[in-house]
Design a protein that fits this description.
Elements: H1 16-26, E1 30-33, H2 35-43, E2 58-61, H3 68-78, E3 82-87, E4 94-97, E5 110-111, E6 116-120, E7 133-138, H4 150-156, E8 157-158, E9 161-170, E10 176-181, E11 186-188, E12 191-193, H5 195-203, E13 208-217, E14 223-231, H6 240-252, E15 260-263, H7 277-281
Parallel strand pairs: 1-2, 2-3, 14-15
Antiparallel strand pairs: 3-4, 4-5, 6-7, 7-9, 8-9, 9-10, 11-12, 13-14
Helix pairs in contact: 2-3, 5-6
Length: about 280
């Protein structure tokens, strides 16, 4: 709005029907969504040939990490990219993001200018490239604390650094890949498993619309991945579970495949589209 553009705010539930109607009517140049909405729009048969806004030049995604297959499918169909970025209430601003001309789907991009990032292990030591660590951010927009929550403030705001609670890896070029929330990560056979990585593999199966993965105890009390999935319309369920397991094994590794697969009508989410995995862990 500061440059004279028009912003369109949708007061309704963001269904494919509603959003395609807005895109067609108002013809925006930038579209802001979340991964679950992009997936729903791509797979709604009613809008299989819809092109949305002919003026669209860019889309942005936030709320949850954008799976690689959704980003690629969107760009292939609509001819414009999705920029996936990370911000938080505590930082007020996007601090890690892909950028026009510098997009690799499946990653969260690089540090936004003005922000410094680091990954620390459980002992507070910086981790090497390729290793999993918790993301800390330093930048000018950080809050000073939570109102009347001194202990939580001390845990999150550590000097100049803000603890995000997100687990990431970083490559040699400074590009970050999301692994999951610190309290969502778990080990299988002594190896860390990223729920997001397994979810992305599950959701890339041609029969699956959405997926969420949580740890679940087997008969020996050991944690293994369990997948909750929402299927696309009209899918044949015969042999689906074994097909899904083999697909994940081939995509991300033998030990990461879900030992249990539960089909659900919908995944529990927040108002901003984040999957509430804690509700699934209790099932």
């Amino acid at each position: 709005m500061s440059v004279g553009a028009t912003t369109i705010l949708n007061p309704l539930r963001p269904t494919p029907d509603t959003v395609f109607g807005i895109l067609d009517k108002h013809q925006p140049t930038i579209f802001c969504g979340v991964p679950t909405l992009f997936a729903a729009m791509l797979h709604d048969k009613k809008f299989a040939t819809a092109k949305g806004s002919s003026r669209l030049r860019l889309s942005t995604s936030a709320g949850e990490a954008l799976p690689e297959h959704i980003g690629k499918a969107w760009e292939s169909r609509f001819g414009t990219p999705i920029i996936d970025g990370v911000g938080s209430t505590e930082l007020l601003h996007i601090f890690l993001s892909n950028a026009p001309g510098d997009i690799i789907y499946g990653t969260s991009g690089r540090a936004v200018p003005g922000y410094t990032l680091k990954l620390l292990d459980d002992a507070g030591r910086e981790v090497a490239d390729g290793e999993v660590g918790e993301l800390f951010v330093k930048g000018p927009t950080a809050a000073e604390g939570y109102w009347n929550q001194r202990e939580k403030s001390r845990q999150t705001f550590q000097g100049e650094w803000t603890k995000t609670g997100d687990k990431y890896t970083r490559d040699a070029s400074g590009r970050y890949t999301y692994c999951g929330r610190a309290d969502d990560m778990f080990k299988v056979s002594g190896i860390w498993v990223s729920p997001f990585e397994v979810e992305a593999a599950v959701a890339s199966h041609p029969s699956v619309l959405e997926a969420a993965v949580v740890p679940h105890e087997d008969d020996e009390g050991l944690l293994k991945p369990k997948a909750f999935i929402v299927l696309k319309d009209g899918v044949d369920r015969d042999g689906l579970e074994e097909s899904l397991k083999e697909h994940v094994k081939e995509t991300v590794g033998m030990w990461k495949y879900p030992r249990w697969v539960e089909i659900v009508d919908a995944l529990p989410k927040t108002a901003t589209g984040k999957i509430q995995r804690f509700k699934l862990r209790d099932q």
